[in-house]
Design a protein that fits this description.
Layout lengths: L5 H5 L15 H13 L5 H10 L1 H4 L12 H10 L2 H15 L7 E9 L11 E8 L4 E8 L5 H11 L6 E4 L6 H9 L3 E6 L4 H13 L4 E9 L2 E10 L16 E11 L5 E10 L5 H11 L1 H12 L13 H18 L6 H10 L1 H8 L2
Parallel strand pairs: 1-4, 4-5
Antiparallel strand pairs: 1-2, 2-3, 5-9, 6-7, 7-8, 8-9
Helix pairs in contact: 2-3, 2-12, 2-13, 3-5, 5-12, 6-12, 7-8, 13-14
């Protein structure tokens, strides 16, 4: 399918405003917001400033019946906008862009927007996102009230995604029997991190590696970033020491990853052992690479949103503003990552602020 234009999808959103208060068109508000965020804006005031600074350019293709919306108008609009409706349109757009890759690794993880916590708020906004390694883009997200609620949010996110043939990786919060069942019901495979929140399972896995010989083994050595790292991935398919293994849908293997990292600048050596369960019965190398790929969501999503978009510094607390602005950030991040310029996300945002033609290119307008 030919890459679809973002605005074609966003214009389908249901407008939360009553007719007599619609001084500005939905399409104008959304376009100005996304173009401003791509160009480096991080607040409603900065979005308004972008609009006013670039008004002549914007008016050449937007209708702008009452000029540029004020920062209060942007705030009220996104505070009232139904985040579920926004997510529906976001998913339609993403699915029009994403290609189907057999064996794609989908990493699911949560991120707290710390700036959304205020004196009258019990907790900050927490977003669970899904990252496609093959497409190099965020393909879905769900808002939860607190990190402990990821257990209930992850199945909702899985329901919204097309994951057949993929490998879903999750950290320890997602290591739940019902989540494993949900993934398999959608004809996908899973790799789940096992930690102390599943104490009996963790003990059984540790005992298995003490008593049984791994059938599969992979050793990897990495140099770079001032360190030397070795990783050893061991896989056991004998589940005889796991209590009631059939409770974990299609459980096929237990995994141990032992890593040792030597920091050249300090001479420090760091050691870590991690455990996993999986429905996969493939090679240790394949499993090891899939596990490593999970951390791509940290580098490609969370780190970018914190460093390039300053998401943790944003203090949007009115209504649905925080979760909807997080979607704007993720739309901008997806668009910037899809662009083929070989420069950093920060540099792309600067270039967008300098060159109107580049914004059109990024937006596929």
């Amino acid at each position: 399918m030919e890459q679809a234009k973002l605005m074609t999808y966003l214009s389908k959103m249901k407008d939360p405003r009553i007719d007599r208060k619609k001084l500005h068109l939905l399409e104008d508000i959304v376009f100005i917001t996304i173009a401003a965020v791509i160009s480096g804006a991080e607040s409603w005031n900065e979005i308004e400033l972008f609009g006013k600074t670039r008004q002549k350019w914007l008016s050449s293709f937007l209708r702008l019946p009452n000029g540029i919306p004020s920062h209060d108008t942007f705030n009220r609009f996104y505070s009232a906008l139904d985040p579920i409706e926004f997510e529906r349109v976001f998913l339609e757009w993403v699915q029009s862009l994403a290609k189907k890759y057999p064996g794609d690794i989908l990493s699911i993880d949560g991120k707290t927007i710390r700036g959304s916590r205020g004196k009258s708020f019990h907790s900050a906004t927490h977003i669970v996102s899904a990252w496609s390694k093959s497409n190099q883009m965020i393909i879905g997200q769900v808002k939860v009230d607190a990190k402990s609620n990821e257990i209930t949010a992850i199945p909702l996110l899985l329901d919204s995604l097309l994951i057949e043939g993929s490998i879903v990786t999750l950290d320890a919060m997602g290591c739940q029997k019902e989540i494993a069942k949900k993934i398999r019901s959608k004809k996908a495979e899973y790799i789940l991190t096992v930690k102390e929140n599943q104490p009996d399972l963790l003990d059984d896995i540790r005992d298995s590696f003490k008593m049984l010989e791994p059938e599969k083994f992979n050793h990897q050595l990495d140099f770079g970033h001032g360190r030397i790292e070795t990783r050893e991935c061991s896989v056991i398919s004998d589940l005889s020491l796991i209590e009631k293994p059939t409770l974990w849908k299609s459980l096929s293997s237990i995994i141990r990853v032992q890593s040792e990292r030597y920091i050249k600048s300090t001479g420090e050596t760091q050691k870590e052992t991690r455990y996993y369960i999986s429905s996969l019965s493939t090679s240790a190398e394949h499993i090891s690479n899939a596990i490593r790929s999970h951390w791509a969501i940290e580098n490609n999503v969370h780190w970018c949103l914190d460093v390039a978009f300053n998401e943790d510094g944003n203090r949007k607390r009115m209504g649905n503003a925080a979760v909807n602005f997080s979607k704007i950030n993720r739309i901008a991040l997806n668009l910037l990552k899809k662009d083929d310029e070989k420069i950093s996300i920060k540099a792309k945002r600067l270039k967008a602020g300098w060159e109107s033609e580049y914004i059109f290119k990024v937006l596929n307008f």
